[in-house]
Write a structure and sequence with these properties.
Blueprint lengths: L5 E4 L11 E4 L16 E6 L7 E6 L5 E5 L4 E6 L4 E6 L6 E6 L5 E5 L4 E5 L6 E5 L8 E6 L5 E5 L4 E5 L6 E5 L7 E6 L5 E5 L4 E5 L6 E5 L7 E6 L5 E5 L4 E5 L6 E5 L8 E6 L5 E5 L5 E7 L4 E2 L3 E3 L7 E7 L4 E6 L3 E6 L10
């Protein structure tokens, strides 16, 4: 199933080029804490639009941090140097789940309630809309880019994974083999294969980019529910097991699985996840209040000392990304902040 894109709309030009609204605030100060040698240093900026669930940051070449307000129905960006926020209006009813900036500087976002992918041109601010070719593909979720600059994306409740070719606008949809498997987090490996959590079942999925054939890997514990996913340079597939409170490793060649209990135990509810340039895994325990950022070194099989995020009130960090240029992790929180974590040093050389 495929379609061509349609309906390119230019946004009104204003002082912030494509922005409809702009706001500037002073940056927050770093959370006061005694740092252990293996903890991160966290700074959070208060987003000026309340109760909008800012989430899923992505950095552009200028170091600006793009994010979406899922409940506020907007795409926005933060300039960490000035603390200024810029808000970009999008179609009513989009309720974007994710935004990701590609190598050309274009910002792609998922219409989680209107069945489309949107692209904001990084030079002009024009929005191009890519509707889903299947009416049952209703909720584009999380995006990952392959080396050709094309998009792979999950559709959680539609039980599908999609592929969008940037040059042609062609969208292809793959249905999952297992009913109600709920594709969630997604990453792309060195061979161009997407790997994704199947959050509704105890499986990890992948797709052959040539044949578009779906393959599912069974996780041995039937209670396992992987929510976010990451890759290390040895080819291993890592995931956070949200329901059991474990960090898991899948060998894609043998299918063997090994896992480690989280420092926060069975109530840790690990959610956001990423990997740094030393192959260390980082994740957030959202069952803990305040939420806690924790690292794991696969070389030593050891966890770092947890770092608190936000205040001791209901909070969830849902997605985060690693910026290799500054060696920092960026995240959004349900407490209405965009955050940066400066990672502790490692005694191994950076990878790549």
């Amino acid at each position: 199933m495929s379609s061509r894109f349609s309906d390119t709309t230019r946004m009104t030009r204003m002082a912030c080029y494509s922005a409809i609204a702009c706001a500037a605030i002073a940056p927050a100060t770093a959370i006061a804490q005694k740092r252990a040698v293996d903890t991160a240093a966290v700074t959070e900026w208060n987003v000026p639009w309340a109760d909008t669930r800012p989430r899923d940051p992505s950095l552009d070449a200028q170091g600006r941090v793009w994010f979406v307000g899922q409940q506020g129905n907007y795409v926005a960006r933060l300039d960490p140097k000035s603390g200024a926020f810029t808000k970009l209006e999008i179609d009513a009813g989009t309720f974007p789940h994710t935004v990701s900036v590609d190598k050309d500087g274009d910002a792609w976002y998922t219409g989680n309630r209107n069945g489309m992918i949107g692209m904001i041109d990084g030079k002009t601010g024009a929005i191009t809309r890519y509707p889903m070719p299947d009416p049952e593909a209703k909720d584009p979720h999380t995006i990952a880019f392959d080396k050709q600059g094309n998009l792979w994306f999950t559709l959680q409740n539609s039980n599908m994974v999609g592929h969008l070719v940037k040059k042609t606008g062609t969208v292809t949809i793959m249905r999952m083999t297992t009913p109600r498997s709920r594709p969630y987090g997604i990453v792309i490996d060195a061979r161009g294969r997407p790997w994704f959590n199947l959050f509704g079942v105890n499986k990890i999925g992948t797709i052959d980019p040539t044949s578009m054939r779906v393959r599912e890997y069974l996780l041995p514990d039937e209670r396992a529910r992987g929510r976010r996913i990451a890759l290390t340079t040895d080819g291993a597939v890592w995931y956070v097991d949200y329901s059991r409170g474990y960090l898991g490793r899948l060998d894609p060649v043998s299918g063997a699985v090994k896992d480690w209990p989280m420092p926060g135990g069975t109530i840790s509810l690990p959610y956001a996840m990423t990997v740094d340039d030393h192959d260390r895994l980082w994740f957030v325990e959202t069952g803990k209040q305040p939420n806690r950022l924790v690292g794991f070194d696969p070389r030593t099989n050891t966890f770092t000392t947890p770092t608190d995020i936000g205040k001791a009130a209901p909070n969830t960090v849902r997605h985060m990304v690693f910026d290799k240029n500054t060696r920092t992790i960026w995240f959004g929180s349900d407490q209405g902040t965009i955050g940066r974590a400066v990672l502790p040093p490692s005694d191994r050389k950076p990878i790549g």
